[in-house]
Amino acid sequence: MVCSDSILVNSIDVGVVQSVNLLIASQLEATYQWLNCDNGNTIINGETNQSYTPTSTGNYAVEVTLNGCIDTSACFLVAYTGLEEITQTEKKLTRIVDLMGRDTEFKPNTPLIFVYSDGTRERVMKLEE
Questions:
Q1: What 3-state class would DSSP assign to 116?
Q2: Gap between the Cα atoms of 45 and 32, Å rounded
Q3: Phi and psi torsions of 12, nearest 5°
Q4: Which of 35, 67, 97, 122 could anchor a disulfide with 114, C-beta 3.0 to 4.6 Å?
Q5: Are 35 and 43 in contact (CB under 8 A)?
């Protein structure tokens, strides 16, 4: 949208960046009001920040006000599956314990339990002659 007053012509950026379930209005230094597209673009009370994380699946837009001009973004789908978002992070070995649960160092030909940073455990026994 282009909005003009008697002197200036202003253009509002109504782009939205979506990162999984987080929506971020692209326009800087403006006033924001997030809307529920599935409910006739009704105002979402209290959601006036540049970013918005919906609490339920639906389509959402942002109304941006800048220098007296108002425009609305397209609607963006945020879908929750009911499962925690799975993040892939590198797991690291944090402890090695023996079968009695005592911390130890790696020893070949000895049954050990490797404990990783993500909470997983692995039984390991490396055979060497």
A1: strand
A2: 12
A3: -105, 130
A4: 122
A5: yes
Three-state secondary-structure class, residue 97: strand
Kindly state the average pLDDT of the residues 16-20: 86
Does the predicted TM-score (pTM) go above 0.70?
no
Domains of the chain: 2-78 (2.60.40), 93-124 (no CATH)
Q: What are the tens digits of pLDDT across the range 111-123?
A: 998 888 777 888 8
Among 73-77, 107-111, 114-118, which stretch is predicted with the lowest mean pLDDT?
Answer: 114-118
List all residues 6 or more positions away from 23 whose beta carbon is below 8 Å from its beta carbon: 16, 17, 34, 51, 52, 53, 54, 60, 62, 76, 78
